[in-house]
Amino acid sequence: MKRIHLSALVLVTWFAMIGWQVRREYFQPELTRLAEAALSLAPGINFYTLRLGDRTVGQATSRLDTVPSGFVLDDVMVLDLPALGQTGSAVVRSRVSLSHALVMESFFFSLDSEVGRFRADGVLGADSTLTVTIDAGGAKQELSYKQAELPIFSAALPIRIAMAGELRVGNTLHLPVFDPSTLATRAVEIRVLEEGIIVIPDSASYDAATQRWSPARYDSIPAWKIAEIHGGVQVESWVDEDGRVLRASSALGFTMEKTEYELARQAQEDASGQSSLAIDEDVILSTAIRSNVDLGAVEEHDVLRFRLTGVELSGFQLAGGRQSLSGDTLTVRREDWEAIDPGFSLPYKLMDLRETLEAQPLIQSDDPRIQDEARRAVGRWQRDPNAVARILTTHVHRMLDKTVTFSIPSALQVLDSRQGDCNEHTVLYVALARSLGLPARTAVGLVYLNGSFFYHAWPEVWLGEWVAVDPTFGQYPADASHIRFVVGGLAQQVEIIRLIGRLNIEVLESTQAGGGRT
Fold first, then answer.
1. What contacts 495, CB < 8 A, 6 or more positions away?
2. Once rounded to an integer, what is the mean pLDDT over residues 396-422?
3. Is 165 helix (H, G, I), strand (E, B) or coil?
4. Which of 55, 149, 243, 436 allows an S-S link to 162, with CB 3.0 to 4.6 Å?
5. What angle do CA 198, 201, 206 make, to 5 degrees?
6. What letters, b where the CB count within 10 A reaches 16 and e where it falls short, cover 362-383?
7. How far apart are CA 441 and CA 492, in angstroms?
């Protein structure tokens, strides 16, 4: 009996030890396991060539360094994007400080373009509150975001997946990802699609006779193909065992490929000397949707009906105001400016539209320079909302040079630079309107121009109903070909990406001034 009891005790003890070991290995806190796995993460720098179609449009670097507190990931992207015969330049930088467990502790993001710089610095507090300081050409502003979960910085997402041991074909994850360009955390689905070998240059040699660089050797790297999916948009990347990106592609037609620095620089220099462009190498023309009907002088159409197919329409702000949606058929009517009766004098005093009257980080309607410009444009004593909306439309249209700009536009920077495309016209208009107490918001969608529908932004102002105006084209009201899909700031505007390359527009019917139909 004693031997039986002793054997049972030994057996129970053995099971307890095994159970403790299993718990230690498989049920220890995730961050502890990540910190242990990240010990193998090697610092290094990667260089990339960026392409739109077959044309090189930039180069990028990504540097991972180890520091006493964990890791620092530095990314720099230099872009020269062809658009409508112009080239828009931008430099995008991001830096994220990560703990040993790859948790975001702080970040820096900036975008520099012809119209100025957008900069955001953020710190994640112990209570999961992300505090962000924004500098967009005016007084710095501070925002705080309470995070339901610890967010993963977008550039560090593949590294986090790899170190968590999740690079297994067929695996699906759902993670909160912070995007510094929109200052928003979104739920992203990650799928591990396949495993393979990626061949990339690992050195370059110089030929003095041709004065050209060429790959000297190639390396075959085990890699995993992952897809990041948000709002129906899928970005695919091949990553190595450390989660460092080797290749990536997006629905917009952009690709990124790891290479050697000399080869990336040479490719960008070669592209800068090209004059002719294919349509798929123009960032604006490549996303345009050809119309089935020539609408001619589109301002003459009072009502337009469209069939929208190819995408799920739920979640977009297609209905409301001048737009009505029935199934996949959208009717857009151009407002009768003379018949509009706002029913109030400026400034608008009710609280129901407070959000469309407040200053925001990129819409500095409380800045004295914006307020002074608005008063100069409309006159100090003008209180008629219709007159103010009309005057501001004409004023901004005449004020800004029409140039393609790749930026995160700020009203103050646009006021200083006096140039830009539809985004700059819109953000300045909205700031000027709000400074005078006229509710205004940003609408994003498509507009007809020269036989195609192009992605576009314009303001809507409250005149008893939301009325579309377009300072880029100098229209008040905007013509009926303006199809609104989204209303709001950057975090909302990125939703438009899920239309690109998928949306089909069929013009069904138009009603012209005087009642004629086509």
1. 231, 315, 316, 485, 486
2. 92
3. coil
4. 243
5. 170
6. bbbbebeebbebbeebbeeebe
7. 12
Spatial contact of 115 and 412, defined as CB atoms under 8 Å apart: no
CB 447 within 8 A of CB 291: no
Position 511 pLDDT exceeds 60: yes
pLDDT band at 518 (very low <50, low <70, confident <90, very high): low
Rounded-to-integer distance, Cα 452 and Cα 448, Å: 6
Q: How many CA atoms lie within 13 A of 132 on its CB side?
A: 25
Q: Tell whether the torsion through CA atoms of 144, 147, 152 and 154 is positive or negative.
A: negative
Q: Which residue has the tokens 């940003």?
A: 442
Third-level CATH fold of 288-512: C8orf32 fold (3.10.620)
Question: Over pLDDT 70: what percentage of the chain?
Answer: 91
pTM, to two decimals: 0.85
Measured at the CA of 28, the angle between CA 25 and CA 32, to 5 degrees, comes to 105
DSSP annotation of 29? -
Q: Is the dihedral of CA 380, 383, 387, 393 positive or negative?
A: positive
